[in-house]
# Entry
Amino acid sequence: MDPHRWQRIEQLYHSALELKTTEREGYLIDACHGDADLYREVESLLGRSVSTAAMIDRSAWAAADNLASTQTILKARDMLGPYEIVGLLG
# Structure
């Protein structure tokens, strides 16, 4: 990707992050001046930051506590979401 293009994407991304979520779309439409590819790229990055922030907001300790409180004992061939337990570590 052209370094100037990437710099523009990064600039728009950081500017949009400083806005309220409800203001971002209007800002990007104006700032991208009809460049749909630029708009999609910045919007994609913003979508990732939102999902990442949502993940980070949930404490790992809370998730671990939740798992421990179920008294679940996982063994080989059990599934944990999309993951298969293949054996004991350590």
